[in-house]
Amino acid sequence: MANELRQANPAPWNRKQEPTITSKTSHGGTVETKAEHPAYGMIGAARVSGGTMLFGSEFQHNAFVRITLRRAYVKRDLSTDWPHANEELFEVDVSEAQWAEFVSAMNIGFGVQCTIRHVQGEFMPGLPYPEKRIDQFRAELGEKLSDSLGSLDDLAAAIGELKLSDKQKAALQKRVDSARSRLTSGVPFVAKQFHEHMEGVVNKARIEINAHAVHTIHQIGLNTLASEAAPTLPTYAKPVIQQAE
Asked: Domain tally for the chain?
């Protein structure tokens, strides 16, 4: 009984549907057919130039990869199938690194981050410039520091309520004050030094990347010139000058 019910109401992915075929006579007199099916599609990838912000990236990209999925149909003429793209379903952009991960790292988690541009003609709003991660870490460090100082204040209040001599309380309070001093002066200083160091690393990396790009372009140009044959100048027969008799 269960099998009969499943056969009568198959799951959507198990339902079969034949393509819709239409035909017409072309200008050349041949019969041209067009096959359409809801499952027909075409997917393509293209390299795009132009500044844009991408989800999962911390800087503006001047080059990226665009992936597009469209509905499709098949036209048959001259004994050949000609697939054609039709309605565009969605378009997403990925960085070069995301594209490499997308095509090489399958079956890992939910996939790779991408930036949705539009879905069935509905355009998505663009992404803002990302927040500097260094500033984000600095804010999180400030929150943790504030929490730690609050815990020290609670500890100092608890020490005052202990049944200890004033001398013992003073000794414990001195330790609490010392810890508070190290947190309020030492940690911000280390954070400031780390920030300046990272800014220097980023700037040096930018210089190195730019220098590498210039060198690569220069080398490609030299290799191209070296691979091309030297131009040959045309030669002409030496003119014959006749002397007057």
From this structure: 2
7-46: b (≥16 Cβ within 10 Å) or e: eeeeeeeeeeeeeeeeeeeeeeeeebebbeeeebebeeee
Flag whether 11 is in a domain. no
Q: Which ranges of 55-181 would DSSP assign to H, the alpha helix?
A: 96-104, 133-160, 166-181
Tokens of 122: 């509905």
| E strand or H helix at 195 | helix 187-227
Q: Answer whether 0.85 is exceeded by the pTM.
A: no
Share of residues in the chain with pLDDT > 70 (%): 75
Instruction: Report the distance separating Cα 242 and Cα 107, nearest Å.
Output: 87
Instruction: With respect to residue 13, please indicate whether it lies within any of the assigned structural domains.
Output: no
Domain end among 123, 143, 167: 123
DSSP 162: S
> What mean pLDDT is reported for the chain?
79
* In-domain check, residue 200: yes
- Domain enclosing residue 168, as ranges: 133-223
Spatial separation of the C-alpha atoms in residues 35 and 83, rounded to whole Å: 9
C-alpha–C-alpha distance, residues 209 and 91, integer Å: 30
CA 157 from centre of chain: 51
Asked, for residue 51, whether it belongs to a domain, the answer is yes
